[in-house]
What does this fold into?
Amino acid sequence: MSRYGTGLPLWDKFVIVYALSRVVTHGLYTFLLSPFRGSAGAKTVKRHVTLAMERKLIEAMTIAQLQYITAPVESTYPAYAKQNGFEPRSETFKSGMKAYWIGNPRSEDVIVWYHEKGGGYTMPADPGHFQFAASIVDSARAAGKDVAVLFPAYGLAPYATWPKQLEQGVESLRYVLEELGRKPGNVMLAGDSAGANLALAVHSHILHPHPSGIPPLTLSAPLRGAIFMAPWWSFATDWPSVAANENKDTVSPFVGDLWSANFLAGKKRDEYNEPITAEMGWWESGGEKGKGLKGIVEEIFVGCGGDEILVDSQRVMMRRLEKIHPHTATLVAHGEFHDQAVLALLGEVCKGELADGIWTWVNARL
It folds into this structure.
């Protein structure tokens, strides 16, 4: 049985073996050509070859096959806890969805982190997510402060399709505020890749309740902050950075098209699921007292890698948010690929300019 609730036919398992052989062959081919990669390739041979193999792996398998070989959060979290010597701690929401803690659940300050491994609502958190969350907790502790990170295990497509993830994202925030009793001024919403898409969608829902009937969420005060890391805010694949960085990044335009179609499942693109399509007025209105985005969150951080195929769209959204919200900080980390700080792919978890930027930003706001 697949870890995501459906059986995987024997033929698919043979295809997985064949796909893995293609990945190895592609890696060897890329290595042989790596001396000629020039500025269009990744900065080191190791990174160039590894990222090429990762892209080929994602392109060579179906979503069901990828999910079959990828451990779910329900397995990776307890394994991470055991490896790092702490007792696994979780919350169970009224819907049955679970969320997992890094740090002390009794901490006054909480970051709700919507996690993705560059997987377009289809792939679960990489173990590097827990390591990066722990680095945020440790960095805060070193600064004499305390914070905990909560990872909601929202549904993955195609078993859960839009707007189910938005419903679960809103439920997660509501649980922290109402069931755990945290004040909005002690809560940050965060996410990476598609998780950053979801984090901003939750803000949109607070401003303009989603027409599907997801219960509105009214805040008694603005949230302390929002962190958007390597955000997937545009599904378009014709940005100049897509062509410029396609050999430097961990994702490709092919899978971007596939994943967006997979999680939308025929639903139209709109301001909630593709925020770059929203007009400026969308962010300037709604919410408490009609103040828009600046009325529901005190400060915003947006960061991405300069070698992402998404970086052009990310820069556009950065400029818009800077105009809309006076307390928006942005960072484009030179030479970093998509979600680099949380992917265990190259042993670069918790390393780099973006990781440093997030630690510094969070610590200054606790």
